[in-house]
Write a structure and sequence with these properties.
199 residues, alpha+beta, 7 strands
């Protein structure tokens, strides 16, 4: 078991790390997205991105910026950059998404550039784990993300979407509160003489 101080130490380390990954499905397609999340998301984007106007770190949240990813002066891809600022992002951290042309070669090249600029590879499901650890969603909602991704029918997708919105969490919370009341009543009957208890 991890002690409280050790867990807090690990969380502090993780909060200082910026992660990056290709978040679109592998293979060829119209668009590929590379996501950066963490404290250095904007400085890394500033290094990779070339465009007109202010650098990504000075842009307001919710901004799409057109420009280019360049490596040693050579253009790698023409992209759109999406800026999201903490706490109003999926992970509740600073997030930059690079929307480039589909295809694994270019996406891997941009990801490699992000890693060379200071990010580390995101572990499987780490963006959702950060959303959970940062309080954006509870564990039931985090599990619903995977259910939604893996759903094989519209009915399964709708059920997962409802769970993601918190419907199941709300039901569980009500059951939990009622269970706590019953538990308190039972404890009281064990600890006190029956004549001393209210009806």
């Amino acid at each position: 078991a991890i002690r409280g101080t050790e867990l807090e130490s690990r969380l502090n380390v993780y909060r200082e790390e910026t992660i990056a990954a290709i978040v679109t499905a592998p293979g060829e397609g119209g668009v590929s997205i590379i996501r950066l999340s963490g404290p250095d998301a904007f400085p890394i984007a500033n290094r990779l991105f070339t465009g007109t106007g202010a650098p990504p770190s000075e842009r307001p949240a919710g901004t799409f910026v057109h420009g280019f990813i360049q490596d040693a002066g050579a253009t790698v891809d023409e992209v759109l950059l999406l800026i999201m600022r903490a706490p109003h992002s999926y992970t509740r951290e600073d997030v930059v998404e690079i929307h480039g042309h589909g295809g694994p070669t270019v996406a891997r090249h941009i990801l490699r550039m992000a890693l060379n600029a200071g990010a580390r590879p995101a572990e499987p499901g780490e963006f959702t784990r950060r959303a959970f650890l940062n309080g954006r969603m509870d564990l039931v909602q985090a599990e619903a993300v995977l259910d939604l991704i893996k759903s094989r029918s519209e009915r399964a997708a709708f059920a997962a979407a409802e769970q993601l919105q918190g419907s199941l969490s709300s039901c569980i919370s009500i059951i939990y509160d009622k269970s706590m009341l019953v538990s308190a009543d039972l404890e009281a009957t064990l600890d006190f003489v029956e004549d001393d208890l209210p009806d």
